[in-house]
Design goal:
The protein contains 4 helices and 7 strands. The protein is an alpha+beta fold. It has one domain. The structure holds zinc ion (2 copies).
């Protein structure tokens, strides 16, 4: 009798902040995300941030991960892969919302309340399309290529 893992169970992730605390799958709209039962921080796998705020135009993750927050080195370890250090990045460059980003698996860690702040920010932008264009142009002009 051999052990085959035909019953695929989802990998358990642990909070990078509260050591030993499990991340529980939560549905936000159509998207399932991992939320810490203790601190309510949220881990987003690659693509999930875009899915959550999909009414916005463009790739929000791309716009964010290119902009490393100055002097901000995250003390967190990636909950999803072996990367020992996350990086602090600014959500869409100028928002002032700082997220922790894994360069290896391209996931994002959001502290409690940051997802709400992001959704509020995107909602604001949705109602100010000219401002959005302007800010994206300013952002793009700062990229080093
Ligand atoms: Zn936690
Ligand atoms: Zn990772």
């Amino acid at each position: 009798m051999h052990d085959d893992n035909s019953q695929k169970s989802a990998k358990t992730l642990f909070c990078p902040k509260c050591k030993g605390s499990k991340l529980i799958l939560q549905k936000i709209g159509e998207t399932s995300v991992h939320e810490c039962e203790k601190c309510s921080g949220i881990w987003l796998n690659k693509g999930e941030l875009n899915a959550l705020v999909h009414p916005a135009e463009g790739d929000l993750e791309y716009c964010s991960r290119e902009y490393i927050a100055e002097d901000r080195i995250s003390e967190y370890q990636c909950p999803a892969c072996a990367n020992p250090k996350l990086k602090k990045v600014n959500f869409i460059a100028y928002s002032g919302i700082v997220m922790d980003y894994c360069e290896k698996c391209q996931g994002l860690w959001l502290d409690r309340g940051e997802l709400d702040a992001i959704i509020a920010e995107v909602d604001k932008l949705e109602h100010m399309p000219e401002s959005w264009d302007h800010k994206i142009m300013v952002f793009l002009s700062k990229l080093p290529f």
